[in-house]
Structure formats: C-alpha cells, structure tokens
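Q: I have 359 residues here and want to know how they pack in 3D. Can you give me a structure?
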Amino acid sequence: MPWFHLVRLLFVLAVTFAAYVTRPFAGPTELNLAAGALLGLLIIGVETRMRSAEVTALLGALIGGAIGLALAKTIGAALFWANTTDPRIKFLHSVILLVFPYLGIVIGARKGEWLEPARLVSLFRDTGPQKRYRILDTSVIIDGRIADICESGFLDGTLVIPQFVLKELQLVADSADSLKRNRGRRGLDILQKIQKMSGMDVMISDIDFPEIREVDLKLIELGRTLQGKIVTNDFNLNKVAQLRGVEVLNINELANALKPVVLPGEFMKVFILKEGKEYNQGVAYLDDGTMVVVDNARRMISKNIDIVVTSVLQTTAGKMIFGRYIEAPPTVQTAAPAAATPPVPNGSPVVASAKVNAK
C-alpha cells in the first residue's frame, strides 16, 4: 500500500475518532461515527480534486480567500452601530461573511496565473517594444543556410548564441575526425559571417545551466528564460521543445514550405538519374532535392524527358512527386509509289535497238 493511502486512512480514522469523542450530534454513537467517517471521506475527495489543480490556482484561491475574509470582517466591524439583535442584521452579517471569502476564492483561483514569476515581472517592465530573441542551435549553425536567411532579411530580432553552443562548436572543430573538424570550422565561419552582416543584432549569451548536462535541454531552458524562439533543424529538439512549451523555428520546415507547388496533370521536364525500386521506374530529383518517381522511365536513365504528374505525397521527411513518362507514338514511314513508266512507241530507237539485240 502506498504511503499516501495509509495517510488518508489514518486521517479518516482520526476524524471518526474525534466525532466519537466529541459527539457533535445528539443521538446514538453510530450516528456520530458515520458523520465523522463521511466528513473524512468528503475531505479526501476535495483533496483528490485539488491535486490536479495548478499550484498558481491554489495559491491564488488561498490569497483571494484570505483577502475576502479580511474584507468581510472589516465590513462587519464597520456595522457596529447596527442593532445586532435584529434578525435582518444577523442575516446581513452572515451573508457578508460567506459572500466575500467565496468571491475571493473563485476570483483568486481563476486569476492565479498572474502569480507566475514571468507575469509578475512583466507588471514592472517597460511597456515599450520588447526584444525578440532567436536562439541558434549547433545544428543550424553548421548547416549554413541560416546565414542566407539572415542576409535576405527574413529573420528579425536578436540572434542569441549561447556560450555552451560555442563550446560545442569548438569541440567539433577540434575533433580528430576530419569530417567533424571541417563541419565545426564551417560553423565558426558561418557565425563570423553573420556577425559581419549589417543590420543584424547578434548577442553572445553567458547564461548557463550547470545542473543540466545536455545542450538541447539547456537551449530549452534558455528559451524559457528569454521567452525566445529556438532556431534549429534538429527534428528531435523540435519535438521536445514544443512539448515543453518553447516555440521553435525549423529551417527544414521553411525549406519545405518554399518548394514549388506541383499539381496532378501538370507537365514538367526532369533528368532521370537512376532506376527505381519498382519495375520500369526511374528516379529524378528537382533542384530543391525533391524526389520524382517516374513510371515507364527505366530505359531513359541519363536523359532529360517530359513527364506528366500523377500524384504528390507529403511526408514528414519532405515531398515526393510521382509521374509518368508518355512515350511518343512511333512515326510510320510509308514507301513512295513507284513512278509509272511511260509507254514507248514501237518506232522509237530504243525498241529498234532492243530488237536488234534480241536477234
């Protein structure tokens, strides 16, 4: 039995025993025992419902109830001049004592989100325009396309480069593996290029979270702290950040959104690069990397052909286009009719020479 079940059982027994000792109801002992047990179970039910509530809502209800109770006591004390023996005055005191704590609890629970630290700080911040932070991930820096996006002006706000990301880039650049070393140096060159761009606000952040070891989790915590967006092309980081309530700008999703729209029935020219998995299929690629699977194109490898689009499939990895190569009908060449030989008269020299030869 878990410990909290044992605590609940002991609490119900304690309330039942208190009802047995004090006997709040005039009657048999069983009535007081039942009333005590019912009251204990009712409190356990309230506790179970409160367990799923937000901490800020509970704190807001507690503060609101205390304020409402204090306000009710103040109003009740202000009515000292009224005749307390009058039943209407007694009813008014009871209503005040019930209404104000109730309103305080309800309003405090509904407005409890204002007790969050970020909301409290926002009350004392300047009402002017706030900075919009874009936190760069290691993968998007090494990828390099972020420099072109910044240069085109599509990415606004302050680019934040955390120190732990720079440290990870330096470790990759100092790797013994030549491929990793080249990628790390490329990332450092991309950062230098972004810093030299005019109109780009780049900030090196010293904020770190020593208790967190993973760089991805540090980025998520930094996004929460700065209330910024993480710029990445890491699929796993994208999902984890969204689950934790941090907004993400995914470069791969942007690239997929900018791919040209192709509709079934349209014609396009492609270069067949290799054969496909199915029979008589050829595979081509567009300039943006989109795969095109073409039926009846296996023998057209290494050739540019015109195809008709049959369907478009959108997947998590990108877009795939299916098409069909329509062969041109063969041209049938008909033989020209032989020219008719004109009749030769008998008295012509040709006929005469033929007769001489025949003799």
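Q: Anything worth noting?
A: Residues 330-336, 347-359 have pLDDT under 50 and may be disordered. The beta strands are 133-136, 158-162, 201-205, 229-232, 248-250, 267-275, 281-285, 291-295, 304-315, 318-325.
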